[in-house]
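Technical annex B. To support the medicinal chemistry partners, we prepared a structural model of the target in complex with thiamine diphosphate, based solely on the information shown next.
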Amino acid sequence: MVRLRRFEKRAYDLFMQNLVKGTSHLSLGQEAVAAAFGEAMRADDWTFATYRGHAHTLARGTEMTPVMAELLGRGSGLLAGKGGSMHLTSVEHGMMGSYAIVGAHLTIANGAAWSARLRGTDQVAVCFFGDGTTNIGAFHEALNLAVIWRLPVVFVCENNQWMEYTAIGDITAVPRPAADRAGSYGLTGVAVDGNDVTAMYEAATTALGRARAGNGPSLIEAQTYRHGGHSRADPGRYRPAEEIQAWLDRDPVPTYRQHLLDTGVPEQTVAAIDDDATREIDTATEAAKAAPAPDVALVEQDVWADGGAAWRN
Ligand SMILES: Cc1ncc(C[n+]2csc(CCOP(=O)(O)OP(=O)(O)O)c2C)c(N)n1
């Protein structure tokens, strides 16, 4: 969680210095969800994320330097500087993409899960999305199909309470937008404290085990909060100050730090975790800043599945 927190705080600073190209969507405050799944998943499982995918990419073991270089649009970036913050992908780490079309990736995760079934592997596809996504048709289509076909997929709604400028409660008929609808698809509604990394890890382990054993999909709603607004263009000032403060009081990073100290983990060990993360982000930042821009001649490369630029019938 500390790594993810450090990375996004630095990404924010670099954005304010106009070094991050395009916009970026931070998940500060939501780190427990990505960290718990990153820990519980097997190396050959698949992650599908949204445009808010920095933490999910790092949680699968991707190094900070290429991710930071990607945000800065450098040639050494994860996608050679051609994807940017919103499209992080690292197939070798099972990070199968960050999708900007709300809801689109739930059906793609189904496709990955189906391929695992057809190939007889016990890989699991895990798909993260926001609360607003539960009001998109693809959410319902994907859940229905996943249940009918008993697909090894785990749908994880990160209910950070807000969509883009709109509170989820203002436009949704049920209090828990994902968990309360699970029954419609024959699933058990699972609502978890998304700021409690231990509870998240347990929920992740149960759902992954269920999928791996051939018992089909799960739908988890993680109750959490993003500290900032929707994107860097949005400071989120429309949200009530008391609401923000109440969630800051339950910030997963300091809360878990305190938990470690309370349960006897030595102060030096906790400090070493902080120091490692600081060193890692400092190194990544310097390397990314020093890296050259992408070669314009490569702009058409990697456009098609074979890595080339030419249309094929
Ligand atoms: C199909 C589609 N409709 C609208 C948008 C514009 N849009 C981007 S993010 C977003 C809000 C999504 O909210 P939520 O699913 O709660 O995720 P969060 O951003 O809070 O993580 C909207 C409406 C889009 N990208 N795709």
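Notes passed to the chemistry partners:
The chain has ten helices and six strands.
Strands lie at 46-50, 95-99, 125-130, 153-159, 190-193, 218-223.
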